[in-house]
């Protein structure tokens, strides 16, 4: 859950200042696709609307399950045309593991191991799937 709630005006895609393209209910399909392309370009993944893009944003701590996620990534990307973007900081061992997964799957996995609020907004707006 979201313990402290969420600022619905800050994360409103119609006016979010961090998005490449703002969108509303009538422009959501095209808006999300354009934000996805912007996200792919920003993190250095091949830009392709057709490839499913999975995003994870969070702390890299045991209770959040990064070890499970890291173990699943090779299984997900080996036979599937999919991209994964991970954003977070935390325990150094998890940060190193994320970077090693990125190195094993260039063009499919990007691990951003720093705090980056604008990127978090772009990931929420551009991802096809959010891993929680």
UniProtKB/TrEMBL annotation:
**Would you say which domain of life the source belongs to?**
Eukaryota
The record's Pfam families line, in alphabetical order, gives: Glyco_trans_1_4
Give TM segment ranges: none
PANTHER family to which the protein is assigned, alphabetical: GRANULE-BOUND STARCH SYNTHASE 1, CHLOROPLASTIC/AMYLOPLASTIC, GRANULE-BOUND STARCH SYNTHASE 1, CHLOROPLASTIC_AMYLOPLASTIC
Q: Can you say what this protein is called? A: Granule-bound starch synthase I
Q: Which organism is it from?
A: Elymus repens
């Amino acid at each position: 859950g979201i313990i402290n709630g969420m600022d619905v005006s800050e994360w409103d895609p119609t006016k979010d200042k961090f998005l490449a393209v703002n969108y509303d209910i009538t422009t959501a399909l095209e808006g999300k696709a354009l934000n996805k392309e912007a996200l792919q370009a920003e993190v250095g993944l091949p830009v392709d609307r057709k490839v499913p893009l999975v995003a994870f944003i969070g702390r890299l701590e045991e209770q959040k399950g990064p070890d499970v996620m890291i173990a699943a990534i090779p299984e997900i990307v080996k036979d599937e045309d999919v991209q994964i973007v991970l954003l977070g900081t935390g325990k150094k061992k998890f940060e190193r593991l994320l970077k090693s997964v990125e190195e094993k799957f260039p063009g499919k996995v990007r691990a951003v191991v720093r705090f980056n609020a604008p990127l978090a907004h772009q990931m929420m707006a551009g991802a096809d799937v959010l891993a929680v």
